[in-house]
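TICKET #2291
ISSUE: user wants both folds in one file
ATTACHMENT 1:
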Amino acid sequence: MLKQACLQSDQQPKFEDQKLMLDNFDIQDIHSPMHRAVDTEKVSKPKSIDLNIEDLKCFEVVKHQYQKLGVVFDNCIAIQPSNPAFPTNSGSMVLMGAPKGGYLEATFLQPVQLVSALVTSSQRLVLSAYHRDRQLLTQTVLPGANLANSDSVLPPNTRLSLKAHEIYSITFCAFDGQFTIDGFSFCISG
């Protein structure tokens, strides 16, 4: 049973029961190195990979160029946009779905948990993430065109991101439209 403590403003609090004194407890400083040490082998940090597409040649078919980084593309080419409606975010190169317009797929060699890209599209665009068995995990949508010098409420190079466990592939689909991708990145669990 707890005994009453004296808590008057001109006195230090005193416990009548000595078992409740702080000095009698083995309290460790939470800022001590012992509490800050973390076993890094047990904690996995996501590894972010940003693709550098500036080394690609204009009209180069993009397929296995980034395989060592963990991603393979399908129906993808690199271009230097000549149409000012499709500006780049930085640099001069972007990715585009071709030869089939309005579609691009990326397959990851090991599952990822986050995919992000800057997208400029002439139509509504759907970015979808799939599990290993092609089961849909999640989607995000660019609701309409976001071309430069248009009346779109969305600016060109709008960031679309997907987050889910064990993403094995993604698709970009702009039905009856064209789009460009810049700033493509993904995170792998470390």
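ATTACHMENT 2:
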Amino acid sequence: MITLSQAAIAEIRRLQTKRQQQQARLRLGVKPGGCADLYYTLEFDDAVGASDRVYDCQGVAVVVDEASIKHLTTLTLDYSEDLMGGGFRFYNPNAIETCGCGNSFRVKT
């Protein structure tokens, strides 16, 4: 299960409206690279593949590909703003290490 905070939901809906893509799904994934082995990806997507999992998070559709799901189970996605600007924050109990940037992480292998 993936959880979105109220702030993340509000920001996703704001971005959907701004891009005139109110029905677009949020695709959340993981790719190799970054400073701690893996990094998170976020994008809007209209397509859902046969092996994708779709989660309904309080009206926001979140799509996760099969390869990424093992790293994202129980992830909480938040959004916050500070003096440096706003951004999504990933809280992943599967990560044994995270980079200072907050977008790269390592899992136990």
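RESOLUTION: both attachments delivered.
EXTRA DETAIL ON ATTACHMENT 2: The radius of gyration is 14 Å.
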